[in-house]
Amino acid sequence: MNSRMNAVTKQQRRLVQESLSEIQELSGPIGQLFFGRLFEMDPSLRAMFHQDIALQSKKVMDVLTSVVARLDHFDEFEPEIRALGQRHTGYGVRPDHYDLLNNALIWALGRALDSEFYPELKAAWRAVLDSISVTMKEGAAEVSTK
Questions:
Q1: CB neighbourhood size of 93 (10 A)
Q2: How far is CA 75 from CA 4, 132, 143, 144, in A?
């Protein structure tokens, strides 16, 4: 399997992984910032979330933490990411939503990390999130072709 993470450089993976501990410490506020920004960008998305946003924030941050911790072995859990994309089609997630999600998350990380979210780190996070999104969209496409 040709991993989408191949588009992410070793340096970018390292930067993202090194930022993980601080992001974990700020995961509650980052999750809240993320959803606030997401719903500001597209208020119609709010209807997709039936659970408490604090709980949903925790889920998002837990998945993100898990993925980032295993970036160097993305091939091994790429099927899980594809399956996540498949499940998200059932929630009403469309391919165009991924850009909104990524932009909202980048914005939230920038707000939370402030000056520590320097351009190289931001670019690294963007590359990782884009790779994850491509993999999830591929999984979602498998659902629509069945």
A1: 18
A2: 9, 12, 21, 23
